[in-house]
Automatic annotation (TrEMBL):
Protein name in UniProt: 5-formyltetrahydrofolate cyclo-ligase
EC class of the enzyme, as a word: ligase
A GO BP annotation: tetrahydrofolate interconversion
Binding positions for ATP per the UniProt entry: 5-9, 134-142
Obligatory cofactor(s): Mg(2+)
Keywords linked to the UniProt accession: ATP-binding, Ligase, Magnesium, Metal-binding, Nucleotide-binding
NCBIfam families: MTHFS_bact
MF-aspect GO terms: 5-formyltetrahydrofolate cyclo-ligase activity; ATP binding; metal ion binding
InterPro entries according to UniProt: FTHF_cligase (IPR002698), FTHF_cligase-like_sf (IPR024185), NagB/RpiA_transferase-like (IPR037171)
EC id: 6.3.3.2
Domain of life: Bacteria
Binding site for substrate: 52, 57
Organism this protein belongs to: Flavobacterium cheongpyeongense
Catalytic reaction annotation: (6S)-5-formyl-5,6,7,8-tetrahydrofolate + ATP = (6R)-5,10-methenyltetrahydrofolate + ADP + phosphate
């Protein structure tokens, strides 16, 4: 099994490509059903990523339904690829979503929400290890964003696949997850 970020990134991108649409939908639903068991439902502001369909990311539409059913404030982001900074917006019925040049669905505009206000962040990832380290696409957007959040903000990775034993090249600036949820398991890193 590969253990470097680069090897793991390639390995899990390949595994994701093999998922059928039915697999993707079922696994995304299973992940959402697992989330119900987490001790996070007393919070108000939840940040959700909108999936890049071409990358076969977890379909967060189920999570959006779960959050709106619980009357939670939902926050989505827009990414600036020059500064690698994310701007967060409140998702409302009036929010227009448009795909950017990288096929990332993003809000066009709306009410901005400071990172410090966000209490729970659902984090996209390609792989994670049993220590709560995660691998994304390597651009550092989420590490920057999570560093801006309060220390008590709950960081929850969403993964179609189970944890690897270790990621070798973890940096000091990499922000660890508090939980990672897969279709079959909830990992807690405390």
């Amino acid at each position: 099994m590969p253990t470097s970020k680069k090897e793991l990134r390639l390995h899990y991108k390949k595994l994701r490509k093999k998922l059928s649409e039915e697999d993707l939908e079922q696994k995304s639903l299973d992940i959402t059903n697992q989330l119900i068991h987490l001790p996070i439902w007393d919070k108000t502001y939840y940040h959700v990523f909108l999936p890049i369909e071409e990358q076969k990311e977890v379909n967060t539409e189920f999570i959006l339904h779960l959050l709106s059913g619980k009357d939670k404030e939902i926050v989505v982001s827009k990414s600036d690829f020059e500064t690698r900074i994310m701007t967060h917006f409140l998702l409302t019925d009036n929010t227009k979503i448009k795909k950017n040049e990288y096929n990332i669905p993003e809000p066009v505009n709306g009410l901005t929400v400071p990172s410090q206000t966000i209490e729970v962040v659902f984090v996209p990832l390609l792989a994670f290890d049993i220590f709560g380290n995660r691998i994304g696409y390597g651009k550092g957007f989420y590490d920057k964003f999570l560093a801006e959040c309060k220390s008590e903000t709950i960081k929850i990775g969403l993964s179609f696949f189970e944890a690897v034993s270790q990621i070798d090249d973890v940096f000091e600036s990499d922000i660890k997850l508090d939980y990672c949820v897969t279709p079959n398991n909830i990992y807690e890193f405390k």
